[in-house]
Amino acid sequence: MRAILFLTLALGQAVAPQAPFDPSRWTLPDGEARAMEYLGRPSLFLGDGVALLRDASFGDGTIEFDVALHGHAAFAGVAFRATSGEDYELIYLRTHRSRQWDALQYTPIFGGAEAWQLYSGRGYTSAAELPLNRWVHLKLVVAGYSARLYVDNATEPQLLVTDLKRPWARGQIGVWGRLGGAHFSNVVFTAADSSAPVRATPGAPAPGVLLDWELSPATDTSRAAPDALPPASVQWSAVRAEDSGLLNISQYRRSVRAPTGSRSRDLVFARHVFQESRASRARLVFAYSDAVHVFLNGTPLFAGESAFRSRDPGFLGIASLGPDTLYLDLKAGRNELVFAVTETFGGWGLAARLER
Questions:
Q1: Which of 42, 81, 135, 232 has the highest CB neighbour count under 10 A?
Q2: Strand runs (DSSP E) across 47-86, as ranges?
Q3: Distance CA 37, CA 55 (A)
Q4: Cα gap 220→222, rounded to integer Å
Q5: Is there a contact between 289 and 343 (Cβ–Cβ < 8 Å)?
Q6: Separation CA 158–CA 160 (nearest Å)
C-alpha cells in the first residue's frame, strides 16, 4: 500500500499538481500545528507534539517525507508503529547538531516519555549533515526490529537501528516536532505485507548484570521522599531489564507527577533481592536517570544527580554503566538492594552490575 499525503502522484513518474494538507486525515496536537505555504509548497508546520495519520496501518515498509529545518535548537522526526499518541517508535533530527555524533536519534516512546538519555551511542545516535532553510528528503526503511534512515537522498543509511525496543505492531505513522519543530511536506508511506517477526535471540548477558527487578507503583516527590524507603505495605511488581542491564522504567510506569511548575519529579522504587552463601564484599557498577538514592538492606549508601545540565551547561545526563561504582558489604542469606529513581524528562531508568 502506498499513500500520498501532501502531494498527489499519478501513475509512473508523472507528478500531479500539489494538493493542500488535509487536516481531517490527521490527529493534530492542539495549537502547535497548522497547514501553510512554505518554500514554495504546501506544508504542515509542527511546533510541538506528534501528528498521526488516522487511517495508516504500518508495521514494516518505507516512509519518505521532506522536512525544512530552521537552524535553532529544535527537533523534527518521524513516528511509526504508533498504537496511540503516547506510544510509538521515534527517529528524529536535532537540527542544531548537524554533523555531530547525536544529530540523529532513535528512542522508543512509552506513555509519552522519551528515553534519549537511556539509548545513546551506536545503534541509537549517529552523525549526519542537516541542511537548513531548504527541503531535505528523508527515507526510513523499517523491517522487523531494524530501521535505516537515509538523509538528503544519501545512498547509505546515516542511522542504523538494529534493536527497536517496542513490541512489533501495526500502527499509525506520523511526524513529530519539539521546541519549534519544522515544516513537513510530501509524506509518503509504503506498507509491506508482513507480520510480527521473531525477535533474534540475544547473546548471554554480561556476567553480573542485574536483570530481575521489582517496581513499586509510581508516585512523585511531592508525595514521597526518595531518601527514605517505601512502607512495608508497598505492592511490588516483577519486571525484567533488557539484556544490557538497562531497565526503562517508562515501559512499566507512567508519569504521575504534579503539574509543571511544582518542581516535583516522578519517583519509583526498584528492588533487587538476592541470596549470598556467605558474607562478602562486591562491587556495584550502576547507571541512572535522572537521580537516584541507593539502599542496601535498609541502609542508604548513595545519592546522585544526573539530570540534563545538572552538572554543567553541556551535561546531557546520558546513563551508562561505568562512571558510578559502590562497594557493598553483603551478608550471608537474603540481601535487598533498592534504587529510588526520580525523573523529570529525557529517560527514566537504571542499570546495575554486581562484580564479585
A1: 81
A2: 49-53, 61-68, 75-84
A3: 24
A4: 5
A5: yes
A6: 7
The answer, yes or no, to whether the previous bond of 102 is cis (omega within 30 of 0) is: no
Q: What is the mean pLDDT of residues 333-343?
A: 98
Closest CA relative to residue 218, chosen from 114, 331, 122, 348: 348
pLDDT digits (tens, 9 = 90+) for 43-58: 999 999 999 999 899 9
End-to-end CA distance of the chain: 55
- CATH fold of 2-191: Jelly Rolls (2.60.120)
The sign of the torsion formed by the CA atoms of 306, 308, 309, 312 equals positive
Q: Domain residue spans in the chain?
A: 2-191, 212-355
> Quick one: pLDDT band at residue 13, thresholds 50, 70, 90?
very low
Give the chain's mean pLDDT: 91
**69 neighbors 61 (Cβ within 8 angstroms):** no
150 and 79 in contact (C-beta within 8 Å)? no
How far apart are the C-alpha atoms of 125 and 105, rounded to whole Å? 5
Are both 2-191 and 212-355 of the same fold? yes
pLDDT digits (tens, 9 = 90+) for 68-116: 999 889 999 999 999 999 999 999 999 999 999 999 999 999 999 999 9
From 2.60.120.260, 1.25.60.10, 1.25.40.10, 2.40.50.180, which CATH number describes the 212-355 domain?
2.60.120.260
pTM here is 0.91
